[in-house]
Amino acid sequence: MTASSISEYIDQYDGDVQQRLLTVYQMIKSAVPAEAVESISWRMPTFKLGVEPLFFFTGTKRHVGFYPTPQAITHFSTALSGYGTTEHAIQLPHNAPLPIELIREIIDWRLQQLPSDEA
């Protein structure tokens, strides 16, 4: 099934994975500007501001994938050294607690990078 909303996407998962996705979703939603748009893009929950993607996230068998832009991953590379990362993604394994404070810091940093007329 292809989800048409973030809620529908999260509802496809069960138990702990669903809760982890819901936590990431709520953290992003509470931080982004009111005019940010929620959608499914590339089959992932997405937040955009105008045409600018802010965040993507996704559930996998082993981790939550969090996509805060390559610049954010580079900026937080030291703090992320204990996590799997790619140029675009941070892998938050299901067998470890979500790093709530780190996710919050990344979200806040990413939003501070927006032009002042968009933030």
From TrEMBL:
Domain of life: Bacteria
A family per Pfam: DUF1801
Domain YdhG-like stretches: 18-109
Listed InterPro entries: YdhG-like (IPR014922)
SUPFAM superfamilies associated with the record: YdhG-like (SSF159888)
Gene3D superfamilies registered for this protein in UniProt: 3.90.1150.200
Descriptive protein name: Uncharacterized protein YdhG (YjbR/CyaY superfamily)
